[in-house]
Amino acid sequence: MASNYLNIIEPIIKKYDGKKEAIISILQDVQTQLRWLPGDVLALISKKLKIPLSSLYSIATFYKSFYLKPRGENLVTVCLGTACHVRGASLILDELERKLKIKSGETTQDHKITLECVNCVGACALGPIVIVNDDYYGQMTKVKVDKLVDHLLGKKE
Ligand code: FES
What we know:
Elements: H1 2-15, H2 23-34, H3 39-49, H4 53-62, E1 74-79, H5 82-86, H6 89-100, E2 113-118, E3 130-132, E4 135-137, H7 142-152
Parallel strand pairs: 1-2
Antiparallel strand pairs: 1-3, 3-4
Helix pairs in contact: 1-2, 1-3, 6-7
Bound molecules: FE2/S2 (inorganic) cluster.
């Protein structure tokens, strides 16, 4: 796996002329390709750029946009804001957790779906809302959620 990672990391480091100051951009580019920052990758970057591994972890945990846990191809987000909550958002989350066999914040084993929760995405009238990547799905029901997940997992409806 480390050599696969090297194929990804080396061109990115080269793009920034191996400059330590470009570490945030380097991490961002690596994450764009891998969808998260595995520990092996951080170790390789640390070695290549001679930046202490602990510093890389500090950066990766400081910025919310970096992920140290695997992320799926699809991000499914459930709004748990007040308006969505009173319209049954927690039942929608329960259904997603049951169907995907993961909890909020986790990724399916096949890395197809990451499940997350947010508080209000500003479309309260459409609640309960589920967002898949950049697409909003309003007035969700358990049946709609099941169909959506089957579609994402490539199962026939
Ligand atoms: S509470 Fe869900 S969009 Fe506002």
